Amino acid sequence: MKFIVFRYNPDVDATLRMQEYEVAASRGMMLRDALMEIKRQDETFSFRHSCGEGVCGSDGVNVNGTNLLGCITRVSDLKEPVTVRPLPGRPVVRDLVVDMSQFYQQYRAVRPYLIRRDPLPEQEILQSPGERDQLDGLYECIMCGCCSTACPSFWWNPDKFHGPQALLQAWRFLADSRDQATDERLDALEGPYRLFRCHTIMNCVEVCPKHLNPTVAIGKIKELMLKKAI
Amino acid sequence: MSRQASGFRAWVLQRISAVYLGVYLVYLLGFIAIEPPQSFEAWRTWMAHPVVSFTLLLFFVSLFVHAWVGVRDVVLDYVKPYLLRVLVLSVFAFGLIGSGLWVAKVIFLAGQTV
Amino acid sequence: MMSDNRPVFLNLFQFRFPIAAIMSVGHRASGIFLSLLVPGLVYLLDLSTSGPEGFARTLEILDNLLVKLLLFITLWSLLHHLLAGIRFLFIDFHIGAGKVAGRQSAMAVTIAAPLLAILFGFAL
Questions:
Q1: Which residue of A37, B12, B37, C84 pairs with B42 in a disulfide if CB–CB is 3.0 to 4.6 A?
Q2: Residue A225 at interface with chain B, using a CB cutoff of 8 Å
Q3: CATH assignment of B3-112, given 3.40.50.450, 3.30.420.40, 1.10.600.10, 1.20.1300.10?
Q4: A193 and B77: CB-CB below 8 Å?
Q5: Is A24 in CB contact (< 8 Å) with chain B?
Q6: Over its length of 230 residues, how does chain A's per-residue pLDDT go in tens digits?
Q7: Which ipTM value was assigned to this complex?
Q8: How far apart are CA A58 and CA C66, in angstroms?
């Protein structure tokens, strides 16, 4: 199988280049396996990966124009030649390795943890099964960055717009019955950028490898704002 | 432009104006398709009807609000240099206000002389 | 290591845009196009209500072939903007906001807008 891979080494290259590799596809081979084979052929090639089963969220890459996780993508599902590039809009550290610090900053900005006003009880804070169900489709996010780096609004304003990943997590804590900072959280999302740069393009929903839906989460945040305003 | 006015409220105004524009647009398109005014008198009589004058004025108000929020969104996305941004938004604001005063005059005059 | 000249992959021609994204770009482009036409619309409204001569002149302008072409593009833009807008309103309230439903409705809007424009154009 023919692979065309984005290469950039800051110590050697003045600019990026595309390099071709030939990899023998085997049964059940995942893209991550193919990238590891390329690494065997060419030691100078770098990419991130770890768990190999879609849990750690390390190997988000752009393949034939679409963001995906290398470890859970069969090479047999990909059209040849397979063009592999780093996640869009993020500064490239080396080859497929990108700098995600802005993405993490946006995550941090939504305060992704429970905030309590009441004194903490001796034991755990109880939740009914119904309340717990509200977190399904939200807590599963592995922060691979496929969604936010596929979002045009995040491309244009990565410093001001939270992006789909952070907004999904913003809703994850707003939806949590144990959290007591609803008003603060909503106020923090006000303004033209943080939440309202979302134009419901739904690229995030298209690419999420965990099949989560940031569009619905963002819609629910807006709905909650509307309910609070009326 | 307070933060309150520029995020949530802009979003709400855009949706509300959209609903009115959408409904009125269907009416307008139907009116033009089914019984287009054939003469100046018929056209003027339609325009001069108080219900038409009022709803048409509201249509243009909604249109300007809707266009303003929409264009502002586009400018916030693509136009980065601060001065250029102010310039584009100002030109657009003046265009909308000018068009607004103009259409108010047209609707008002049409309502007067029949 | 932070602010430097590291390359960024952001070539819009090498990114594969799903149908919903293309429809969304159409919503944006048609919105800008339509808002630029507002002064023209107001001008025609003024002219047509100014008197019998103005009314006749308006019909004359609208009868021009180039204007008719512009009118068709306007109608297409209007219908695309309207249908896409209705779709967005539904998605705001979590209706049809799934991946498959979003794709289907985006495709439906993109196809229906020009078809309706042609249909409406013939009716005139």
A1: B37
A2: yes
A3: 1.20.1300.10
A4: no
A5: no
A6: 999 999 999 999 988 999 999 999 999 999 999 999 999 999 999 999 999 999 999 999 999 999 999 999 999 999 999 999 999 999 999 999 999 999 999 999 999 999 999 999 999 999 999 999 999 999 999 999 999 999 999 999 999 999 999 999 999 999 999 999 999 999 999 999 999 999 999 999 999 999 999 999 999 999 999 999 98
A7: 0.91
A8: 55
